[in-house]
């Protein structure tokens, strides 16, 4: 069996790189570690960290096709991020103009969670720890 040690990164393709970079950095609190423009691909790549841990590669490509999300399709369902207080997180997102779905309770863990969408409609979950 292959012995994986950790998740290295999550790659996200944005239709509008600047808009998505602002969302992930200014709204969700990721830190931009590095950023490069690849002229041969007409593509930006930003390396984003959360609390110093490299997590997301944010890409742009010309005219990427939209991600099918409704109804749910096969493949990656969503990304989930832990928060200390779901109510505070939802209030902060609302102040930033980001809508959250109603807060639900996980029937197995009794933890509260909600979903939101990034600028391209990628579903994101906030899960209270």
Structure description:
It contains two helices and eight strands, in the order βαββββαβββ. It is an alpha/beta fold and 129 residues long. Strands 1-4-3-2 form a four-stranded mixed β-sheet, covered by helices on one side. It has a four-stranded mixed β-sheet with strand order 5-8-7-6. Strand 7 (112-117) and strand 8 (123-128) form a beta hairpin.
Key features?
single chain; 129 residues; alpha/beta; four-stranded mixed β-sheet; 2 helices; globular
Number of helices: 2
The strands making up the biggest β-sheet line up spatially as 1-4-3-2
Class by SSE composition: alpha/beta
Name the shape in a single word. globular
Order of helices and strands: EHEEEEHEEE
Could you estimate the helical fraction of the residues in percent?
Answer: 10-25%
Q: How many extended strands?
A: 8
| Average pLDDT metric | 93
Low-confidence region ranges: none
Structure, briefly:
The protein has 129 residues and is of the alpha/beta class.
Secondary structure: elements and pairs:
Elements (H helix, E strand, L loop, with lengths): L9 E5 L2 H11 L3 E8 L4 E8 L2 E8 L18 E5 L2 H10 L8 E2 L6 E6 L5 E6 L1
Parallel strand pairs: 1-4, 5-8
Antiparallel strand pairs: 2-3, 3-4, 6-7, 7-8
